[in-house]
Amino acid sequence: MARRSSKFEFPTLPAVAWQPGLPVHGAATWVIVVGEGGLPAAAKDAGERLGVDLGRLLEVQQATGFSPTAGATAAYPLLTGEVTEILLVGAGDGSGKDLRHAGAAIARIGRGKDELTTVVAEGIDDARLQALAEGVVLGSFTYTLKTVDPGKPVVGRVTLTDGSEAERQAVLDRGVVIGRTGWLARQFATTPSNEKDPAWLAVRATELAASTGLEVRVWDEKQLAADGFGGILAVGKGSARPPRFIRLDYVPDGATKDTPYVVLVGKGITYDTGGLSLKPREGMVSMKRDMTGGGSVIATLAALRELGAPVKVTGLICSAENMPSGTAYRPDDVIRHYGGRTTEVKNTDAEGRLVLADGLAYAVKELKPDVIVDIATLTGAIKVSLGSMLYGGLFATDDALADNLADAGRVAGEQLWRMPLPAEYEELIATPIADSVNSSKGPGSITAALFLKAFAGDIPWAHLDLSSIAESPADRLEYSLGATGAGARLLTTWLTTPTPTSGVG
Ligand code: BES
Ligand code: MN
Ligand code: ZN
């Protein structure tokens, strides 16, 4: 039997194309996007083209249970002519969120088809049209190693039209790139850990750097030791697959010394068993996703040049596999991080903060950026605080930075909720043995954030704890069952606003 190659394949995305006017020859399937306000204006012309009264069709469908809530679908077969099927897809209130959902529904029903002609409301604004394109890409996501019935391929092409002569391809292109960042982050996080380890992640980053115009540097375990990355080394020590620190640099065309500079630091734990503080079976399942933050940083960096981000950005991915073994780090060990700060380990399962601490310290000492943002599936406790698939946790030492990130989260459909960083709880992570301790009683997400804060120095800093939005329980909205690749869309959206660091400092 032929062995499946484990070579990583970058995704083949659906083409999302704008069509001025109504197409003369459309696809065999036409989709009519229906909002709460009814049919798109072009539905009249489209209906004439198809020989169907679409107003009447909508009435009949509504009488038999269709309502235009976001993502709802109804199919109507045509028995003559080149078009064989009309699909009504609900767009709800027409918000970005609902149109992203509608886009995902279009992608799901388009699976296996070459092309869909899709009629949307005239004058839909850029943000919403972009969200629809994002949904088409994200709803197309597949990852399977099934050898039997692997499922239908991604829709080849979704052609959008509002019947007008407007030219709006650029808006769709941006939506496809943002959707692609989400797809890539999701693909990284979904890849099983027998395939991915820190070196694998470094190869993915290196390939993407070459194809998207970034500088890349990778530290192997020897270089990590030489430079004193004690946190990453300690967490990686128990694994036969050594840790890596990955640096990606994006410099916009025409950058000067006054161009704002942002550093992103991502948690790249390619598997989290808990280490010697071993997780129980139930808690360990899904920990292949513990590199979601690092994967999102890689996916984000890979989009910046194409989208013309106006700021300099460095992505730092702190990657290790957290395993128990005879060479593993222990509870009671004291670690010396990059730059010298010390941590007493009380729980080897609180490993994320140990690797991120090295990345933050490196950023402060070597890069001196205007802003640092770290991103991680850092704590289970954030899921207790914020529940599932509604909000990611946001911590920040700067109000403008918090607002800019929260705004980007709303636009991108990855909402954040700001959490406090009270100095009163700092005593919870104090120890006589070292500068701090890595685990403690009390509010777990806040103490984790306070631990990291000490490594960010005086630089405006935000911390995204996204465990609460890293895993979808089902194929719903623009998500598929499993890893969401949380954070990539929000970071890409934020860094491609006109002034990501406005008001900061
Ligand atoms: N990777 C986990 C956090 C996590 C848990 C993410 C569930 C997604 C789903 C992290 O490394 C961890 O184990 N955190 C511990 C910290 C504790 C030992 C202080 C936790 O949250 O239980
Ligand atoms: Mn852990
Ligand atoms: Zn972890």
TrEMBL record:
It comes from the Bacteria. GO terms for biological process: proteolysis. PROSITE patterns: CYTOSOL_AP (PS00631). The keyword Ion transport does not apply. InterPro entries: Leucine_aapep/pepB, Macro_dom-like, Peptidase_M17_C, Peptidase_M17_N. The keyword Hydrolase applies. Keywords: Aminopeptidase, Hydrolase, Protease. Gene3D superfamilies: Leucine Aminopeptidase, subunit E, domain 1 (3.40.220.10), Zn peptidases (3.40.630.10). GO terms for molecular function: manganese ion binding; metalloaminopeptidase activity. Residues 347-354 form the Cytosol aminopeptidase domain. One of its GO terms (cellular component) is cytoplasm. Presumably involved in the processing and regular turnover of intracellular proteins. Catalyzes the removal of unsubstituted N-terminal amino acids from various peptides. Belongs to the peptidase M17 family. PANTHER family: CYTOSOL AMINOPEPTIDASE (PTHR11963:SF23), LEUCINE AMINOPEPTIDASE-RELATED (PTHR11963). This is Probable cytosol aminopeptidase. It comes from Kribbella antiqua.
